[in-house]
DNA sequence: ATAGGTGCAAACGTTTTGCATTAAA
DNA sequence: TTTAATGCAAAACGTTTGCACCTAT
């Protein structure tokens, strides 16, 4: 609970007003010991069920996008109907379990860093994401 | 134009009936000299504008998904509102230009193959995708 | 004749928007 | 008190679905 003043400080530093809603979202996202992956829907459910709070969807979207812009969250590239976010903003990659739609972190020790020998004129590399899709061994792949 | 009989054959081999609509889609996707990237929207526009044909959206979706299932198309993972497909089904990776929302192929010579030292029990690797996001050098990232 | 495919419109789920209200500075 | 943030409902958008009709076999 005492984290709240830290979040307040951080938000103010970032030029974001520390509102009640944003502080709640910070608690959910940044208090857990471990980083985690979530969709907006997941997050809204956590806020509603675990915190018995109700934050407007628009506000959740606003806040998540603001946090992403500030680099407090990472969006993960998957071709899915929804967007996945990660509270782990360090450089790392992912497994995506097609059976369960779950993301699994892949630490840097578990994957060699990608060596890119091409560059695009006038463009700068913003991110390199490796996505390893996995599924049950015995799955009918048609 | 003489490709049509080839497409008919291929479709029949795959257990897909060679309908007028599917043959049109084959023409658009597989006749060009070069492989390319597209969204469903792109494809529908090409069919409407270049071929002056009208194929129902549901049919386009059906066909693209059928082709993907058969391995004639690849879906590319990007966190975008829409799905991107690739007529190049060989193993290769992509640059994604955030300024223009364009995909650029990255050949295997341009990127070292990714070495994964982790595996997930009971799961098999289905694909490994590297996505390199690029944007203008001078772009305001805020 | 009979699967399988098509087309339309409606439904769906996620995300965005407009605008009046509220709260932080 | 003024600027930013919230909440709500509506709209937008890509995608999927249900079902009657059509067409390849």
From TrEMBL, chains A, B:
Under CDD domains, the record lists: Fur_like
Has UniProt tagged this entry with the keyword Glycoprotein?
no
Q: Signal peptide span per the entry?
A: none
Q: Which UniProt keywords apply?
A: Cytoplasm, DNA-binding, Iron, Metal-binding, Repressor, Transcription, Transcription regulation, Zinc
Where found? Cytoplasm
Major location, coarse class? Answer: cytoplasm
- SUPFAM superfamilies from the entry? Winged helix' DNA-binding domain
Pfam families in the record: FUR (PF01475)
User: What is the similarity comment for this entry?
Assistant: Belongs to the Fur family.
Subunit structure of this chain's protein: Homodimer.
- PANTHER family referenced in this protein's UniProt entry, alphabetically: FERRIC UPTAKE REGULATION PROTEIN, ZINC UPTAKE REGULATION PROTEIN
Q: What is this protein called?
A: Ferric uptake regulation protein
Give me the gene this protein comes from. fur
